[in-house]
Automatic annotation (TrEMBL):
SUPFAM superfamilies hit by this protein: C-terminal effector domain of the bipartite response regulators, TPR-like
Entry-linked Pfam families: BTAD, TPR_8, Trans_reg_C
Residue stretches making up the OmpR/PhoB-type domain: 747-858
Residue ranges the record marks as coiled coil: none
Record's protein name: BTAD domain-containing putative transcriptional regulator
Length: 1005
């Protein structure tokens, strides 16, 4: 819902106008804060207005023309500090709007309507409908009108194959009755008939509205523009996005169908005026529909002959083909065949072309016929037959206009797919020269799209940008859709994921409008990948599932691309068995069809899964991907091999793979693959400094593109590198929380050779715990409590040697000193075995010893209390350097990390007291610095909460009391400041210290 919450600014007035069922009342309730009120307009006409910070006024439409201005006048007297939000089913009278104070911000149906993914969630959560294509059908029928969406969901729950519009519009249906009572009943006389008539004809452009004046009389028939504005404002007609702007006003299909029985009979001469009005607007399909309804065959042939190319390529090609079904004229048949091809029915398209091909003499074909035939064959995947069809055109030289340019563009496309890059580049260059000479937008769009196929880098982007601009200018929806699919793919390769998501949505929208299914799965896959990269896994999975559904309609073997995406999401989220199933199915389908662009990445992903589970087949699977990979796919395969080798700790194989992956990704200018290659390079690097450089470079790529999960993954690994500073560790912990929030398990961060997680980790803040190689040591492994105590004593001495005599005295104070040295040796052996169960390291690796005694090697053992104290010192240094934001990050992390006292299970032991006190002092200093820093950065509420927690630990700290009282008073929380001052006085009296003197203002104490 696109309505902002309240409290955006003082004096704000929001007005929501939309028909019933758009969710206006829900928007008021969502915006209303705890100290606000939502009330019906009729209840506010008399009496005192409530004293609240937010006032929502519902059902303004229930007031008449006299009462609306009266209420508005009353509301105009409300103080500017009160936010006003009004909702109405019909436009509010101008006299009332003039009475409202300040600017009025309007919201309407477009802000309240549900998008496709929101509709998909509603259908799944409330109606148990998980068909990925159902949401598209519902939005097409309802334009996202919330109440109608729920009616549609109820229909599909009972009959998943139902025609939504037909079922909802049936006489006696709940939806038809609701539309009649809550929509039609509020319309001026004649408007319901107008809507039913427009539903049958097409968009409500001004010329059509004027033509319908006599056919649909009403009280304002002489002002069709005013009628149209009101219908738009309430959402009964909507402007669906077109090529580069909103399209013409169109009746919401369900509403139009419910009112179709009220449609007026339109005379033939009016239909002719309607058809011409559509032609003047360039709405060729609507014009064709009007001429066909009028029964004017000559006008149909003339329209199809003159504007056939744009008629077929302007959207809804299936309807174009149906409207031209009775045509026999050769030029019209060619238009119908092209429409069928674009609609995805290439077999029917070739069947229509057959008599035209038989009429052609010898082997020569006209360029338009050859291009249409080649398009059908290309769509079916028979690229060589497509080239053969194109080769049947005699080379008649330049100057034949757009038809020849499109023929050249088709040749360039087919040649590039067959690997003839040089020949394709020559043909594309020729197409561009002739398009420039022709000068028409359609020719230029086709030529630039062809040139983009044989270009790389900036030149490719430039050709795509120009192709899109010219396609929009020409009204060529099909070409624009193809350009957008290519642009989204290019943005993904450039690791520009936020931009790729925006362009990807446009590509899906344009492919849907253009009709057919050919490009739609690729568009959905691109959008799914972009969404997955930015961390929107829910919608990404839905887009992939839609791609599978659309592809399956084209043939059982076409769904591999979507299954690959689904496998990637499952693997990212740790759903390994589901990922394995999706990858496996994608591999099977791609093996059968020979789609290497699916097969190679699917094998690479499957190998990584197998390696993670110790599967012996992992290396063979990864190697197969490398052997099958084309140059463009080689980085995918090498990354799969490299990560598989890292999981299996086959470091020579991993290093060879990463060296090649970095080189190939860089040569192909594939920034996304380069970033992952840099991560892989860091994983195999043993030098932490070098790993840090590689990871930071990868982070810069991911961050620039908005790849939230990848950024978090890299930040976690940076924090785990040996030698990571306090800021890196704090950032890593925040990043780990981000991954958890996104649903990505921490196990998906594959630790490299330089990761400190390969060292021993000891926790003494709170409950004592030791982890070796990421696994907590169970109690029985210690054999005795004294072995754990020995390690705790060494931790408490913070890496300083402790003499054997002192250790024996601490561990066995009452035993015979002659016996205890041997017992200490046994304990030492036990501790070393626990920390190095496989005897992989020298005996002195973790617990060192010499004549001075024993000590813990803090270079190889990670101790949480050491990290805590070191980070506390670093936070203080950052503050001294004036780096408040960096210090705040570390201080907040220190606050979150401190779960309890140091060595709290040894509370009675004197040897633990010094460390415990050191940690307590560090915690108090940390909280004080945190509160002070928050206050300086303007985060008073957080600072006050921190000061309160600090006083709970140290209730007699006069400085903290003073800071809290001043902060509360300065924030205007005077009652709380008074109570805090009283607690301060009581605390000082309790310890015999001078109580504070209360001045005229608490901010001065």
């Amino acid at each position: 819902m696109g309505i902002e919450t309240a409290r955006d600014r003082d004096g704000l007035v929001r007005l929501i106008v939309a028909a019933a069922g758009y969710g206006k009342s829900a928007a008021l309730e969502i915006a209303c804060p705890a100290d606000g009120l939502v009330a019906p307009a009729t209840s506010l006409l008399d009496g005192d207005l409530p004293a609240v910070s937010f006032l929502g006024v519902d059902d303004v439409d229930r007031l008449d023309a006299h009462d609306q201005p009266r209420l508005a006048h009353r509301l105009g007297q409300v103080p500017p500090s009160v936010t006003l939000m009004l909702a109405s089913r019909t436009p509010v009278a101008a006299a009332a709007l003039a009475q409202l104070r300040g600017p009025v911000f309007r919201s309407g149906p477009a802000d309240l309507a549900l998008g496709e993914y929101r509709v998909a969630r509603v259908l799944e959560e409330e109606y148990a409908i998980d068909d990925p294509e159902a949401a598209s059908a519902v939005v097409e029928a309802t334009d996202g009108w919330p109440a109608l969406v729920h009616f549609a969901g109820d229909v599909l729950r009972r009959d998943p194959t139902a025609d939504i519009v037909e079922h909802l519009a049936r006489a006696g249906s709940g939806c038809a009755g609701w539309v009649d009572a809550h929509v039609a009943a509020l319309l001026p006389p004649g408007t319901a008939s107008l809507l039913g008539t427009l539903f049958r004809l097409g968009p409500a452009v001004p010329g059509v509205m004027t033509a319908l004046v006599d056919a649909v009389p009403g009280p304002r028939a002489n002002d069709p523009e005013a009628v149209l504005r009101e219908l738009e404002e309430t959402g009964l007609v909507v402007r669906r996005p077109g090529l580069d702007r909103s399209g013409p006003p169109t009746v919401v299909p369900v509403v139009g169908a419910c009112l179709a029985d009220r449609a007026a009979a339109v005379p033939g001469e009016v239909l002719e005026r309607v058809a011409r009005a559509y032609e003047e607007e360039g709405l060729w399909l609507s014009a064709l529909r009007a001429w066909t309804t009028a029964g004017d065959e000559r006008a149909v042939i003339a329209l199809a002959t003159e504007h056939g190319r744009l008629l077929a390529r302007g959207g809804h090609p299936d309807e174009v083909a149906e409207l031209l079904a009775a045509a026999t004229d050769p030029s019209v048949l060619l238009v119908r065949a092209e429409a069928l091809r674009l609609a995805g029915d290439t077999e029917a398209g070739r069947r229509i072309l057959r008599p035209l091909l038989e009429q052609s003499r010898g082997t020569d074909l006209p360029p338009g016929l050859a291009t249409c035939l080649a398009g059908c064959l290309y769509t079916e995947g028979d690229h060589r037959a497509a080239l053969a069809a194109l080769d049947r055109v005699p080379d008649v030289g330049a100057g034949s206009g757009i038809v020849r340019v499109e023929w050249l563009a088709a040749r360039a496309q087919v040649l590039s797919m067959l690997g003839g890059r040089g020949a394709a580049a020559d043909v594309a260059a020729q197409a561009l020269r002739e398009a420039v000479e022709d000068g028409t937008p359609g020719a230029l769009a086709a030529a630039h799209l062809a040139a983009s196929r044989v270009s790389t880098g900036t030149r490719k982007e430039l050709h795509l940008d120009r192709a899109l601009r010219h396609a929009v200018e020409a009204g060529d929806l099909a070409t624009a859709a193809g350009v957008r699919v290519n642009q989204a793919h290019l943005l993904l390769a450039g690791a520009r994921f936020l931009e790729a998501a925006r362009v990807g949505r446009d590509a899906v929208r344009l492919c849907t409008l253009a009709g057919g299914s050919g490009r739609l799965p690729a568009a959905m896959h691109n959008l799914g990948e972009a969404l997955m990269r930015i961390g929107d896994y829910g919608e990404a999975a839905w887009q992939y599932r839609r791609g599978v559904a659309v592809s399956s309609r084209l043939g059982a073997g076409r769904a591999g691309l979507g299954l690959l995406g689904i496998g990637e999401i499952h693997r990212e989220l740790g759903r390994d068995e589901q990922a394995r199933a999706a990858y496996g199915e994608a591999v099977d389908l791609a093996t059968a069809t020979g789609e290497l662009q699916v097969l190679v990445p699917a094998l690479a992903g499957l190998a990584r899964l197998e390696a993670g589970h110790g599967d012996d087949r992992a290396m063979a699977t990864a190697t197969r991907a490398v052997e099958l990979a084309t140059p463009a796919l080689l980085p995918f395969a090498l990354l799969g091999l490299g990560w598989t080798a890292v999981s299996l700790e086959q470091w020579p194989v991993a290093r060879d793979a990463v060296e090649r992956a970095v080189r190939e990704s860089r040569d192909q200018a594939a920034a996304d693959l380069l970033a992952e290659s840099l991560e892989l390079a860091a994983a195999v690097e043993t030098d932490p400094h070098r790993s840090r450089m590689l990871l930071n470079e990868a982070l810069s790529i991911w961050s620039a593109g908005g790849a939230t999960p990848a950024c978090a993954r890299v930040q976690v690994e940076l924090g785990r590198l040996v030698g990571a500073d306090a800021t890196a560790r704090a950032t890593a912990r925040d990043a780990a929380n981000t991954l958890r929030r996104l649903g990505v398990p921490e196990s998906r961060v594959l630790h490299g050779a330089g990761s400190s997680d390969r060292a021993i980790r000891v926790r003494v803040l709170g409950r004592f715990r030791v982890s070796v190689q990421g696994r907590v040591v169970p109690l029985q492994k210690w054999r005795s409590r004294q072995a754990r105590t020995l390690l705790k004593v060494l931790v408490a001495h913070r890496g300083r040697p402790v003499s054997r005599e002192r250790l024996c005295e601490l561990l066995w104070p009452d035993d015979d000193p002659v016996r205890t040295p041997h017992r200490l040796s046994v304990l030492l052996s036990t501790v070393r075995t626990v920390l190095d169960p496989d005897k992989a390291w020298p005996a002195e690796q973790f617990v060192a010893s010499d004549g001075r005694g024993l000590w813990l090697n803090l270079d190889t053992v990670s101790v949480d209390v050491e990290d805590y104290l070191t980070d506390a010192d670093e936070a203080a240094s950052l503050l001294q350097e004036g780096r408040a934001e960096a210090a705040l990050l570390v201080l907040a992390d220190l606050d979150r990390r401190h779960p309890g006292q140091a060595l709290e299970d040894e509370a009675d032991e004197a040897w633990a007291a010094p460390l415990r006190e050191e940690v307590r002092i560090a915690q108090l200093r940390t909280l004080r610095r945190l509160a002070t820093t928050l206050g300086r950065l303007g985060r008073a509420a957080q600072a006050q909460d921190t000061l309160v927690r600090l006083l709970a630990i140290e209730p007699f700290d006069e400085q903290v009391h003073r800071l809290l009282v001043r902060s509360l008073a300065g924030s205007g929380r005077h009652g709380e400041a008074e109570r805090a001052f009283d607690r301060w006085r009581e605390a000082m009296i309790m310890i015999g210290a001078p109580p504070p003197e209360r001045g005229p203002r608490l901010t001065d104490v």
